[in-house]
Structure formats: C-alpha cells, structure tokens
Write a structure and sequence with these properties.
The protein is built from ten helices and no strands. It is an all-alpha fold. It has one domain. Helix 3 packs antiparallel against helix 4 and helix 4 packs antiparallel against helix 5. The relative contact order is 0.12.
Length: 153
C-alpha cells in the first residue's frame, strides 16, 4: 500500500505546472526527506546539467523510498555522468542501464504512481524501441528531448 503522504506529494507536484520549482523548494523546507520532493529535485538538477546535485537528491529519494528503483539507476548514472560532463545524459543512462544488467524500474505501484503523474507525450513513446520507451517514463525534460532527437536520427 502506498502511504498517503506519498500520494499527496505526487498530486501536489503533478498539478503545480510552472510553479513546480517553487513548490519543490517549499516541500524541501517542510519535509527534507520526502522521496517525491527529492526525486523531482534530482530530475531538475539533471536537467540543469548538475549531476552531483541530482545524484545527492536521488540518493535521498531512494533511501527514503527503496521502491523508487529509477532513483537508484539515476544515482549511478549521475556518478558516471559526473566523470563525463560532456556526454549526453541519454548515452550515459544507456551505458549505466546495461552495466547494471538492466535494473528493473517502473515495476512497483509506488514508482508507477510517481512516473504516471509526469507522462511523456504519446507520440514520443509510440516511436521508441522498448528500452528507450522505458527511459521516456523518467520525468527528465532533457532526456525526453534527447530521446525525441534520437528517434528522428
């Protein structure tokens, strides 16, 4: 069963729209160990090319909610990406995913609740192979942009 706090945090952020950064800052102050807040702050940091900050947020998210397997994957992706700052996030994510033998993510109800709240566009998902389609579920704007470019290449 998914805790009510987790549900309400997902709802609060999914409906934030352009106010999401402000709500995340408020959420961090109110509950620094909230896995949803930390996960989304990690995504924002990765989108801003700040892998160290993103990795720290994802570590807290994963430790607070171990069902967030994508947070664990993104921790290792961030560590590798920190050593290769010029590499595109998609390339680093693909290598990390294979290196760790395709770890399962998007399989628990808790993780699906979070990822379903920030869905990719249907056109993007429809045109991608299975592994990349899975990556499109991660709420990372920069990654989704790279996937759209990879699709047309």
């Amino acid at each position: 069963m998914i805790p009510t706090r987790f549900h309400s945090a997902v709802r609060r952020y999914a409906t934030a729209g352009p106010a999401l950064p402000q709500r995340l800052a408020e959420g961090l102050t109110a509950d620094p160990r909230c896995p949803v807040t930390r996960y989304l702050l990690g995504c924002q940091a990765f989108d801003q090319d700040c892998p160290a900050t993103g990795t720290r947020h994802m570590m807290v998210a994963y430790h607070a909610e171990p069902e967030l397997q994508s947070a664990a994957l993104l921790v290792f992706t961030g560590l590798v990406w920190g050593d290769e700052p010029d590499a595109p996030l998609l390339a680093v994510l693909e290598r990390t995913y294979e290196l760790f033998r395709r770890p399962p993510f998007d399989e628990t109800p808790t993780e699906r609740l979070l990822l379903d709240a920030f869905p990719p566009g249907p056109a993007l998902r429809a045109a991608l192979p299975e592994a990349l389609c899975r990556f499109s579920r991660l709420p990372l704007a920069s990654l989704r942009g790279q996937l759209a470019t990879a699709r047309t290449a």
